[in-house]
Amino acid sequence: MKPNIRIVEVGARDGLQNERRWVETADKIKFIQLLIEAGLTTVEAGSFVRADKIPQMKDTPQVYEGLPDGLKKKYSLPCLVPNMKGFESAMKVGVREIALFTSISESFNAKNIGASIEESLERFRPVALAALAQEVKIRGYISTAFGCPYEGATSLETLKKVANRLFDYGVYEISFGDTIGVAYPDQVRTIVQELKHHFDIHQLTMHFHDTYGLAMANVCAAYEEGVRSFDASAGGLGGCPFAKGATGNVATEDVLHLFLKMGLTTGIDMQKLLVASEFIFSKLNRPSQSKAHQAYRNKYSLCSD
Ligand code: MG
Known about the structure:
Blueprint: E1 6-9, H1 11-15, H2 25-37, E2 42-43, E3 46-47, H3 60-66, H4 69-74, E4 79-80, H5 84-92, E5 97-103, H6 106-113, H7 117-133, E6 137-143, H8 156-168, E7 173-177, H9 185-198, E8 204-207, H10 215-224, E9 229-232, H11 252-261, H12 270-284, H13 291-298
Helix pairs in contact: 2-3, 2-12, 9-10
This protein binds magnesium ion.
């Protein structure tokens, strides 16, 4: 049976890209494998960006090549590609799903990808066409959907326009990113209500960060509005290299715990997720930031799940 809730694990890309401490290629591969063993079926695997921009992602080709073929056939392992060059590198190692990434803030786009919103969309057009021609799936990302570190509030009209363009390009879903963690539940409700008027709610994923401790409240608000897909990272890995002070993604363990308590199915095994999370945090030499993780390990929770 199809789970009620889909959690997209972004720890191995969105999470690790913000970590200064180098994580060995073999450890990145093992982390992705452990996440899949835990039941996650969509796991971001890396990013085909310039090595000088995001050094932690420079071994994405080797990570992807190092993953077992069976696993690559069976699961979604999206990799970010910023342009045609990145796409070509991804195709060389057999990537079957890409993610295209833009924002709705001109200032953020300039710093993050060195292009205006329009330029980024134009840059994606040939990439999307090439991807579809090769039956490569495309995931869309819109960051700063709930606010921008440079511009403050962002426009819902621009959000809808950019989402429309990405859907026109053939993305199968869009992840709406609260890149700097400024979203709050009322705002999430307003934005999701508006988006679901225009788009199929099953093609909307929410991507929250916990900067102000509201990520879980935002997950609940989006759930109540009908969203059933959420990005999260094991142990709350991450931040954003282009948004100073932005803390990690909402933790996969916390999101999983919430949905378990709501009696919903995710297909994910908490104990195995704890193992995956502990593995990567042991390589980073710090503990998981997930509250649920700590509670499960401290046995405050007597859940058998
Ligand atoms: Mg993120």
